[in-house]
């Protein structure tokens, strides 16, 4: 009897050892949980038994609601998941807008349980470009979009909350209620927490590529952005890195920041193409 019980306990320990962490997935703009179904299936094919929580709120046009509103609601969902996995923790994947909002969720959740955060082609340093804009606001052009987005009405939209016009940095700082704060460009009472919450991560994985076609500049997926002459400043030369506003420099120096660039991947292929998923996502899901 004791020999059988011992074998059962051993098998249980082995199964717990080889089990993969649960995964929380946050969808992109104008889509929803259904759009992430291929990614969910691929994760469970490659890592059988993985529990996947596919965030189901703010699908379709609701994804344009004010970013802070979405972030607070997603925080409540993530907390429920963390309460289910207090010991092993979870991994988190945020796609497109969901990667930016998902990162903010971690920042307002100081004792989150996320071990690896994967930002999949997300505008972490903001967005500025006609291609993306015309997907949502066909009549707007990037050159004049600030007139809408840098206003009280414009800040009621998620896109306005991370629209980063390099020609109007003063208006960006004056009106934007979201991105300059979660990037600690503007100080707030939560600035220290926003940085320390990201430093809880075992890994931050930033994924993007030059053929994305939506995130503009595509290097925003790596926290790089335009200067006023449309030159993209490398991450290591940007103030957010050199002054370590949100801990990116500390994460990199401690070997916890992974910057992934992959060519020939369009924006809507990152989460729907098996070889891309297997190459840039699966190696970081433990």
From TrEMBL:
Main localization of the protein described in the UniProt heading: other
GO molecular function, one term: thiolester hydrolase activity
Compartments reported by the entry: Lysosome
Catalytic activity: S-hexadecanoyl-N-acetylcysteamine + H2O = N-acetylcysteamine + hexadecanoate + H(+)
Record keywords: Disulfide bond, Glycoprotein, Hydrolase, Lysosome, Signal
Gene3D superfamilies: alpha/beta hydrolase
Similarity comment text for this entry: Belongs to the palmitoyl-protein thioesterase family.
Protein name (database record): palmitoyl-CoA hydrolase
Organism: Anopheles quadriannulatus
């Amino acid at each position: 009897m004791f020999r059988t019980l011992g074998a059962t306990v051993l098998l249980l320990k082995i199964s717990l050892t080889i089990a993969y962490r649960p995964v929380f997935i946050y969808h992109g703009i104008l889509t929803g949980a259904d759009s992430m179904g291929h990614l969910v299936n691929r994760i469970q094919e490659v890592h059988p038994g993985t529990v996947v929580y596919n965030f189901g709120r703010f699908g379709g046009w609701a994804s344009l609601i004010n970013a802070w509103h979405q972030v607070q609601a997603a925080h409540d969902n993530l907390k429920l998941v963390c309460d289910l996995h207090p010991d092993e923790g979870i991994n988190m994947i945020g796609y497109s807008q969901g990667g930016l909002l998902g990162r903010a969720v971690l920042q307002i959740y100081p004792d989150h349980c996320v071990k690896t955060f994967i930002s999949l082609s997300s505008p972490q340093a903001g967005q500025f470009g006609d291609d993306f804009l015309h997907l949502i606001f066909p009549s707007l052009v990037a050159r004049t979009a600030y007139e809408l987005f840098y206003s009280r009405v414009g800040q009621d939209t998620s896109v306005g909350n991370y629209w980063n016009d390099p020609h109007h940095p003063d208006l960006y700082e004056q009106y934007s209620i979201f991105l300059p704060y979660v990037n600690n460009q503007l100080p707030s009472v939560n600035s220290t927490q926003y940085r320390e919450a990201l430093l809880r991560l075992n890994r931050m994985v930033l994924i993007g590529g030059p053929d994305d076609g939506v995130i503009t500049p595509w290097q925003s997926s790596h926290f790089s952005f335009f200067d006023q002459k449309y030159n993209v400043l490398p991450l290591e030369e940007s103030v957010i890195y050199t002054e370590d506003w949100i801990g990116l420099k500390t994460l990199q120096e401690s070997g916890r920041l992974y910057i992934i660039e992959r060519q020939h991947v369009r924006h809507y292929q990152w989460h729907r193409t098996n070889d891309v998923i297997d190459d840039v996502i699966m190696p970081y899901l433990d």
